[in-house]
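User: Structure tokens for this complex, please. No commentary.
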Amino acid sequence: MESRRIRVRGQVQGVGFRPFVWQLARRHGVSGEVLNDPEGVLILAAGPALDAFEAALRAEAPPLARVDAIESAPHGFAAPPEGFRIAPSRGAGAETRVAPDAATCPACLAEIRSPGRRQGYAFANCTHCGPRFTILRALPYDRAKTTMAAFPMCPACRAEYEDPADRRFHAQPIACPDCGPRLTLEVEGRPLPGDPIAETARLLREGRIVAIKALGGFHLACDAANPAALRTLRERKRRPAKPFALMGPLETIRRHAHVSEAEAELLMDPAAPVVLLSTLGDGLAPLPAAVAPGMSSLGWMLPATPLHHLLLDAFGGPLVMTSGNLSGEPQAIGDAEARETLGAIADAFLLHDREIARRLDDGVERMTALGPMTLRRARGRAPGTLPLPPGFEGTPQVLACGGQLKSAICLTKNGQALLSHHLGDLDDALTWDEFRRADADMAALFDHRPAAIGCDLHPDFRASRHAAARAEAAALPLLPIQHHHAHLAACLGENAHPLEGAPVAGIVLDGLGLGDDGTVWGGELLLGDYRGFERAAHLRPAPLPGGDGAQREPWRNLLVRLDQAGMEGAADEMLSAHPLALLRQAAARGVNAPLSSSAGRLFDAFASALELVEGAQSYEGEAAMRLEALALRAPAEAARPYPFGRIDDQIDPAPMFEAWLGDRETGASPAAMAMRFHAGLARAFATPARALVESGRACAVALTGGCFQNALLLELTAAALEGLPLMVHRAVPANDGGLAFGQALVAAARALGGGAESG
Amino acid sequence: LAHGGGGRAMRDLVESVFTAAFEPPGMEDQARLTSAALAEPGARLAFTTDSFVVTPVEFPGGDIGKLAVCGTVNDLAVGGARPLWLSAAFIIEEGCEVALLRRIAATMRAEADRAGVRIVTGDTKVVQRGAADRVYVTTSGVGVIPPGREMAAGNVRPGDVALVNGVLGDHGAAILAARGDLALSTDLQSDCASLDRLIEATLAAAPGLRCARDATRGGIASALNEIAEASALSIELDETALPLRPEVKGMCEILGLDPLYLANEGTLVAFVPEDQADAALAAMRALPEGAGAVAIGRAQAGEPGRVTMRTAFGGRRIVDMLVGEQLPRIC
Ligand SMILES: [Fe+3]
Ligand SMILES: [Mg+2]
Ligand SMILES: [Zn+2]
Ligand SMILES: [Zn+2]
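Assistant:
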């Protein structure tokens, strides 16, 4: 009989892996033990068929586990083991992992819908599903250190919890109606009698708005098919146009949106993200336009908890499920906080008596022709780890502090990167508090002791100031990293590009980031690796009249681009409602009008050319999102790219605007013009990127930056690069939500030695 | 004007322009002053200095000379001092018109008389063309803080109310308009004014006045940040309460400027205990330079040094100290 020492790496703690191994061992006649340690799970096994046992470890791993590697070596037992046991954890830093929250599994769903002690129970869960990170107060992940500590287990639950053969063996949030959390429906500060779920469904049917305490925060819910309810919600939330997320069962979603196989799989992922789904084409039942004005897709998620399943069962239609916050603020998580901030918005509160320990928004993802893409990394994905690329094995621990508007932080440790969930706009006071809490919290949770701190080159990003203060306090090196270099590094890292790999051509189409020449960048072709880069080409800079004000009002960008193209007359005619003379002077004299090569602002300019946003955008990215939505309505043959010019290393949009004006005069459809813009921009950057690869200077092309959240732009750029090795984002957002991951890699690469950043 | 190394031409200039304007008692190289004002037990001397550089040198509502007197008078006054004496030093670009210097000297004298201070000493240097922009002025000031008066940025306590004496940003907006390179037609005037009288009146009505700061460069935002830092507490502003002229607001919106960071030269922020806020406001409003006085926020226990603004939408935005030039941050 053979004996082995089997090491399992990956996401294998807190996901029912040890009981799974225990059951597997019994099935394969294996004796020995299994335990958690700082590196993952360790199995000491003796048995007749260890190859089959090892294969099953990977093939049959529990739903929430992710096995990155299995390493096995011969092992000599001092005495032949008897039976198989789950041994106590070993080593300092063991049990420092916690899995993200996971959507209700089929077994639990069946259980709440069938007669039995958990029928109709809103808080059922097991080892394969349920809350994790959102209830965690401290590690190790034990019930006593979660917000379930307030609910002593009843004997029935205790028996399940202690039985290794039960799917609730060591399920920390185990609960039942006898011992677990309970719901209350509150109207005007008083609990409403009756079944909270049935009553909530009734209120929603009546067109009311209900604040619902969910996993990582409050939602505001209303009937998605009721235009009056939608109008009320938009008015009360002061959110005129930003799309609402929707929730429904899969069959409901299919009635209102196209759901491909891959999209269905993404919806059903344990992370239960909001998935953007197309509403174009025939045979779909439309929802009121107020759900997502000007969009050709809707953000849908499946119910992720028993509470949401039961509510949808009782309600019977799609629900708006938007985050319960004031515009710009993070979601409320406490009952008192929710009553205060949402009291003027919600008619009722569906509450429960389990606290939310951690604020986590809903994640947002979408499918593209190149695979899944993460727009907002949040509940269900955090705190998942990302493996560091080859060559980073000896990396010291690094902290990176990310960007300003879609902030997130990243830690590296033990060959893994831990990219936090989306934290938000750091100029908001509550978000700023949350950001610093997250930093302190993650350092404590993961016992993180950075040897260096990375941040953006922009000194006035609050995250950069925080990084500088932390670095100074701890006497650590601070590494400011150029914004688009960090975007590039994030894309390289996600694609496992080795530290010593050849340079990559990075098409970075983005909003704004401070360049190392003091101007503001954002439409870049970089050639580089983790350590450094050169600026191979970029959009011809134009002023940003009004600084950040140019971001809010897309027409400002149209003005400067038309003027730059010598089309002042067209600007005068199209933008006559605006104070053009003053802004032209401000632009000419540099009064709050810094030069920028931003691709995001070019999107704004063109969206303004097509009159998609009249005055100010009502939310960040509105103009660009409307432009993509419009382009998707164009017939495929419309994709003739607009021409862009080339002046040395500058990509000039002037010819594009001239061609557009011609289209406009001949009465071309706005959708076709929007499509031609996308195709033109894609080609304008793909051509020089291709040249870098074909001349041997780059080994591949990486597509990154916030503009690549736009699936159409991504697909058109990929098509223009056909035949070349391509790197795109999947789990790490292409937008600033992924910045910290890139910063961490650049900082680590520099800490490991090698060349410095070049410009 | 073409004056090089000192000599007679320079002496003529000094005598005809500055000494003439600031008499009596005449400007000497060294002023000999009575220490009577300091005789009172517990009185303290206040001493401050500031340099003034502004383009254009003359603007609606004032000129660089008025700015130089008001600025130093206000520096003394917000510290609780009664301003007594000023010095004035001029760096003049070769070629600067003597008539302009005469006008500047005259406004300085007028403003000094109004504020009850005397310009008692000074200096003049002429530098070659291009080495200065027409004229720069440096003033230093001496004042006396009466016994028992304790105004300091660190004195603010939770619950104290933040008051301003009038609209924000007029000076910064007027200067921008006066530069003439933007097509701004506006009647905006700089708010440039001495605030010593206002502070005395406020103190008389609200003896608990904790501190005052004139919101000059960096605007009200910087003044508030300094106070929050010194007092180790938080300050929360109410966006809807901020007094802004519609013209200034409009200009800021178009040019993407934040009025909280626009310079003021006759606007201060003062903190008073809540129960004295009404009295303080009434006292301010009784004077022309305080006619637009309002409460704009309050101090609270909270993160030390943090200034936030409750927006019209109900959210709370952080109001930072301005660090260098504002570069766009939105990605
Ligand atoms: Fe970015
Ligand atoms: Mg000063
Ligand atoms: Zn389950
Ligand atoms: Zn129970």
